[in-house]
Amino acid sequence: MRRNDLRSTCWLILIAGVLLICRQCGITCADEARPPAPATPITLIDSAIRIAADDVRPHVQFLASPELKGRGPEGKPAAREYIIAHFEKLGLKPLFDGDFLQPLPGQVDENGNPTYVGANIGAYLPADNAAGAKEWIVLNAHYDHLGIRNGRIYPGADDNASSMSMLLETARQLANLKQRPQRNIAFVAFDLEEQLLWGSRWFVAHPPCEPEQIKFCMTADLLGRSLGNLPMRTVFIMGTERTPEFRKYLTAANPSGSLELGFLGADMVGTRSDYGPFRDQEIPFLFFSTGEHPDYHTPNDTPDKIDYEKLAEISTIMARLCAHLGELPEVPTWKSPDPTDPIDAKTMNRVTEALLKADDTGKIQLSGFHRTFVSQLQSKTGGAMRRGRISAEERVWLIRASQFLLISVF
Ligand SMILES: [Zn+2]
Questions:
Q1: Residue 157 to residues 1, 139, 236, 259: CA-CA distances in angstroms?
Q2: Which one of 131, 235, 294, 300 is separated from 332 by 20 to 30 angstroms, measured CA to CA?
């Protein structure tokens, strides 16, 4: 995930913006409740699919081991070997014209020859019918990280070995299913996410199929910890504002129900990972993340800090949904978001509740200003939840407030 280096400037702009909005933004009371969504049967979610902590842990421990040198230039060849060997063992097909690797070009050298700066890794489970062979589901996570900096290794256990373990174990679960999917399911490990999403940008511009054949993208980044180390069993899911029917599938796929599904509009967090280039092409997407924490992009992002039970549960949801996408008669299409949908307010209300509780118990220390700000955010989102809708003006405020919170508190 890319850290925003305009932090101080944004900080000042947002403070001004938030203070301005606070003064203007009165309560808009629209009291009619939203009509309930029509109930449709959840028949296809395969609850036999289950990924355990012992399945994901070894992948994280290997990919974030000192030998992999933080999966920068020195460590990436070993990571590629490991990932390709896993795909081969499962009998998956190479994704790129018989090759598991899609080289990523850099600048041409002084003689005009192309140079290569990295490689995406891809494999797929083919559809069991001709029509389905023209449709693709792309499950992806980046495998690169920061490498070695100032002599120190950045292991990247959560960023992004955690999501890589989900990708590898989902490939195993689906490859072992009795029946082949109705459409192709691709498993892609992107390179150079840490450098302006170069790997996923190149993939979307040079896909292994016709661009319009990509029906859905599911990305994961940071799946093994919690937002700000808060005691939350939440996975944030961005993108359902374009395909709201997924909320019921995700709820049905939630193994024990002990995981909290925090639905958020992607515009609440901005472009944070490899789903960005797909979204830009209006390809329906889902982005899964447990959020940033103090060890993010530091040498302390180590395997011993990963919550493997939680990672396994999130991986199980994603694997079940992937299998579901392989079976659905039709993949949900890209829709305009409902601006009055209070779902973001519900999730931000939960985040502010956890923040205030952590501050009350001394787990974190909020400044006076932040305490006031978080309390106001909580009361405003609570109001929208009670009304069952949010006004367009309030949503603009909520986006700015959420981005300010993510930048200044977490
Ligand atoms: Zn990342």
A1: 13, 19, 19, 21
A2: 235
CA of 257 to the centre of ligand 1 (A): 26
Print burial letters for 52-67: b (CB count within 10 Å at least 16), e (below 16): eeebbbebbbbbbbee
Give the distance (Å) from ligand 1 centre to CA of residue 64. Answer: 13
Q: Quote the ligand 1 centre to 68 CA distance (angstroms).
A: 16
159, 145 in Cβ contact below 8 A? yes
Ligand 1 centre distance from Cα of residue 93 (Å): 26
Neighbours of 42 (CB within 10 A): 12
Instruction: Quote the CA–CA distance of 101 and 121 in Å, as a whole number.
Output: 5
CA of 6 to the centre of ligand 1 (A): 18
Collect all residues with Cβ–Cβ distance below 8 Å to 287 and sequence separation of at least 6. Answer: 219, 220, 221, 237, 238, 239, 266, 272, 273, 275
d(CA 162, ligand 1 centre) in Å:
10
pLDDT in tens, 314-352: 999 999 999 999 999 999 999 999 989 999 999 999 999
Whether the CB-CB separation of 118 and 104 falls below 8 Å is answered with: yes
Q: Give the distance (Å) from ligand 1 centre to CA of residue 59.
A: 16
Which residue ranges form the domains of the chain, and what is each CATH number?
A: 53-327 (3.40.630.10), 341-410 (no CATH)
Q: Look up the pTM and report it.
A: 0.89
Q: State pLDDT tens for residues 295-316.
A: 999 999 999 999 999 999 999 9
CA of 2 from ligand 1 middle (Å) equals 7
CA atoms within a 13 Å half-sphere pointing along the CA-CB vector of 273? 30
Provide the β-strand partners of residue 219: 140, 287
Tell me the two tokens of residue 262.
């925090």
Ligand 1 midpoint to CA 148 (Å): 16
Cα(193) to ligand 1 centroid in Å equals 7
Pick from 395, 119, 403, 163: nearest CA to 269: 403
